[in-house]
């Protein structure tokens, strides 16, 4: 019995990888074995760096919130603790943006939370 090779699917799989490596430098874009390795390595780097980017952005948001809170006499940890006790569910990205862009509104938020007078605009919506 003759050997059966599924060249159509093999070539289509190779073509898919080669399409994704388009734009790479040198033989990494058109030689199958090198392109396959380059593509796999690029995916590993992308996964690693997306996680590092999330980690970096979270630490940046924390630094910005800390700087904003210290303008009003609070540390970051105390401010977050007060927010949790007041049941305010605003994420760090939004808080950091408020602290950087709209200092007046951030100050109003800090003062309201410290006084315990959390407005309806800060309470989580109940469905």
Our measurement of the CA-to-CA distance between the termini, rounded to an integer number of angstroms, reads 67 Å
Radius of gyration: 26 Å
CATH superfamily: Ribosomal protein L20, C-terminal domain
Give the CATH level 1 class.
Mainly Alpha
User: Given the structure, what is the number of helices?
Assistant: 5
What is the mean predicted local confidence, pLDDT?
A: 89
Sheet-strand content, in percent, reads under 5%
Q: Tell me, briefly, the overall form.
A: rod-shaped
CATH structural architecture = Orthogonal Bundle
* Major beta sheet summary: none
DSSP strand tally? 0
CATH fold title: c-terminal domain of poly(a) binding protein
Structural class, by secondary structure, is mainly alpha
> Helix and strand succession?
HHHHH
| Domain module count | 1
- The helix content is 55-70%
Low-confidence spans: none
